[in-house]
Amino acid sequence: MSRGPSGEPASGLIIVNHNTKGDLLACLETAKTAGADHVVVVDCGSTDGSLTAVARSHPWVIRVALPNLGFGRGVNAGVRRLDIEQPSDVIVVANADTRFEPEAVRDLATYLRANPDVGAAGPRVVFPDGRLQFSARSFPDISTALGHALFGLLRPTNRWTRRYRLTDWDHESPRDVDWLSGCCVAFNAAAFDEAGGFDPAYFMFVEDVDLCWRLGQLGWRVTFAPVTQVTHAIGASVGSRRTRMVLEHARSLDRFFDRRYSPGLATRLLIRLGLLGWAVSVIVWSRMQGRTHAQAA
């Protein structure tokens, strides 16, 4: 196990990127002061020169080049590289469109080391304008999922969406939750390893829900820990592929519901019809609003 400058076990930061060079370089600038002992950039098939730019401006960063295999596989590859070069007891995973407060990674690592039964901890996440993002959520049962899908876009204060997003809570104190957004989340490396990392069958979306669920099944706590704050722009890498990404999201939700609930044939048909309706409405909404569906999910 490698050690940081303070003599504690080292912490690693893994940033996954796909064709968001500008965001990636801005993220790495904030990572300089975030307190990570080692930083890995996993580039998933970018064609915009992202890794070349990183090598030129941030030569201290460990770089991994992959085809576009999806977020979860990218993280898993970053963890394997970190294990080979700089084994760490805390792994912070982030999207390229995040920005870190000073000492953010160190604060999350300190929290996990002080709470060894916590497998995953998520910071307070805000939009660039300072509004809170609901990055800690509950697992949706089938009725909540359908209610959120049907009414979440038009009336986000409906009871199903509030239950799913945990909006009736100030997000100012630590709390155990069902799952945390993969836009920025810290893992106890032993927990991540025990769970087998992200399921590679998810290309994009819901892989964070699935991993947190599996951590809980193994007895690890999943905790919202507002010991630091991270800014997240949302959807930087998916904006130009809205329809494909909505369909991918629906496919991932279908996989998760099947894994968690093992529904019968009739229920499974109902779920798929609901997901189809959700996908169509979201595609129409995103085109009318000029926004990515992730901004409303």
Explain this structure.
By secondary structure, the protein is an alpha/beta fold. The chain is built from ten helices and eleven strands. Helix 1 packs parallel to helix 2 (50-57). It starts with 10 loop residues before the first strand and ends in an 8-residue tail after the last helix. The mean pLDDT is 87.
Count the beta strands: 11
Helix content: 40-55%
Radius of gyration: 18 Å
- The end-to-end distance, rounded to whole angstroms, is 39 Å
- The helix/strand order is EHEHEHEEHEEHHEEEHHEHH
Low-pLDDT residue intervals, each spanning 5 or more residues: none
Tally the helices: 10
Structural class: alpha/beta
**Strand-residue proportion:** 15-25%
The quaternary state of the protein chains shown equals single chain
From the spread of the alpha carbons, the general shape counts as globular
What is the overall pLDDT average? Answer: 87
Biggest sheet record: 9 strands, mixed
In short:
The protein has 297 residues and is of the alpha/beta class. It is built from ten helices and eleven strands. It has helices at residues 21-31, 50-57, 71-85, 104-114, 142-151, 159-165, 189-195, 207-217, 242-261, 265-289; strands at 11-17, 38-44, 62-66, 90-95, 98-100, 118-126, 136-137, 175-176, 179-180, 184-188, 221-232.
Q: What is the fold's blueprint, element by element?
A:
Layout: E1 11-17, H1 21-31, E2 38-44, H2 50-57, E3 62-66, H3 71-85, E4 90-95, E5 98-100, H4 104-114, E6 118-126, E7 136-137, H5 142-151, H6 159-165, E8 175-176, E9 179-180, E10 184-188, H7 189-195, H8 207-217, E11 221-232, H9 242-261, H10 265-289
Parallel strand pairs: 1-2, 1-4, 2-3, 6-11
Antiparallel strand pairs: 4-10, 5-11, 6-10, 7-9, 8-11
